[in-house]
Structure formats: C-alpha cells, structure tokens
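Quick one: structure for this chain?
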Amino acid sequence: MPWAPGQMARVLARREAPGRELADAAEAIAVTCHSMAVRFHRGGRLFTFGNGGAATDAQHIAVEFVHPVIMGKRALPALSLTGDVATLTGVGAASGFGDVFAHQLHYLAEAADIALGISPDGRCDNVLKGLETAKESGLLTVALLGGDGGRIAGSPAVDHALVVRSDDHKVVKEVHVTMYHVLWELVHVFFERPSVLATGAVA
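Got it. Here's what it folds into:
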C-alpha cells in the first residue's frame, strides 16, 4: 500500500505539536497539581465532569484517585458527576441539561473540594456552569480544554486552565489522557511531601 507511509506521517504530525506543548506546560501543570495536593491534604475531595467522551475521561480520572493502580499509593476521595444516570436525567428533565453538573456541585461539594471539568473545545456550557458554581462555593477549579480554550479558558471561574491547542478532538483526548495521568502522579508527589505544600513551594 504505497499511501501508507505518507498517511502515517500525516497522522503522527498532527500529534507532534500538541505533544511538545504538553511538555512546555510543565510549570502550569506542576502548579495545578500543587494546588490540588493542598486541597486533598486539607481533606478536600475531587469532583470530575464532562460530556460524551469527556464524561468517560471524568470517570477515568475519578477511579485513578479512588483506586490507584500503583501499589502503595494512597487512595484519595474523588467522584465523577457523570456516572449517576438517574441524577443526570432527573436534573436534565427538570432544569435543563445545562444544570446537570452545577446542581450536583451545589448540593454535594464543600469549599475545601476541587472541581475538574473537561471540555475538548472549551465551549461546553454545562461544564462552564459547573465550574462557575464551584468557584462561587469556594472550590479550587481546574479545566482540561482543547482548541483555543474557548469561553472556559477565559472565565474568571477557572483557577487552572490546561489547554491542548488542537482542533482534532482525537488528538485532544489523547493528550488529555496523558495530562491527567501526569496530574495524578504529581498530585501524589506533592501530597506525600507535606513540607512542600506551602504557598510558593513550586519552582
């Protein structure tokens, strides 16, 4: 198949720049992980949410924290807001789909907690509304985004916006998976060393 090498090169090329940018974002990721570790150390919990494929990523992130695959790592409290079909459909039917995450955060979360929303294009209204509700309640807010970051990246409700600069949703998802695995690992690095949890400890 003479087209295969050229096609493969183009497929890989679409992933090259976003992959490099992930490495370039090391400081922003480290600062995000430090902030999350501080919240966990104070007894906070992590709430994750997103739509479609991002909903499965939200569930993946939650289980990584609750049930670490690496022996010896401490389980940390996390819950995906996408897993309760009864609540999602109940709130959606009564108030509209735009409220499905905000409603849950309003009634389940506390000020010490963390809200992590995922939007591959940065334009998911219910993810933004969830983050806004979380911020109003005092939570730390983190967003994993794609494209140009959209309205979510520019929202004052987001404490940490990590953006994969690609319009290809497959590439965004692939880099998000790597990104949240790094988040999990670095959160534990900080969490296991309380002496570095002071403000300004990340260099």
